[in-house]
């Protein structure tokens, strides 16, 4: 039995921040990378629709999946604060996220 799950979601980048968004992710803090891995994320991709600046994120997560607990952790909140000027965010600076349900798998 495969205990891996897929999480897919959309976020929205603000105009003029494509390069800075890429730069900050290229320089992802080692402690955040470790935290994401410890939460069960084994693959994480973010793609950009250049026409709309929509970001599409895809995570492959292994059990035990503790990604739901990340929002309460100080390092995650600090990352959200760091990224808040680049993208649409909620009042707590977490990114506005729209889940993307699976429609097909090959």
From TrEMBL:
GO molecular function annotation: racemase and epimerase activity, acting on carbohydrates and derivatives
Pfam family membership, one: rhaM
Signal peptide: none
Transmembrane segments: none
Top-level taxon in the UniProt lineage: Bacteria
Gene Ontology biological process: rhamnose catabolic process
Name of the featured protein: L-rhamnose mutarotase
Species, as recorded: Arundinibacter roseus
UniProt cross-references to Gene3D superfamilies, sorted A to Z: 3.30.70.100
InterPro entries: Dimeric_a/b-barrel, Rham/fucose_mutarotase
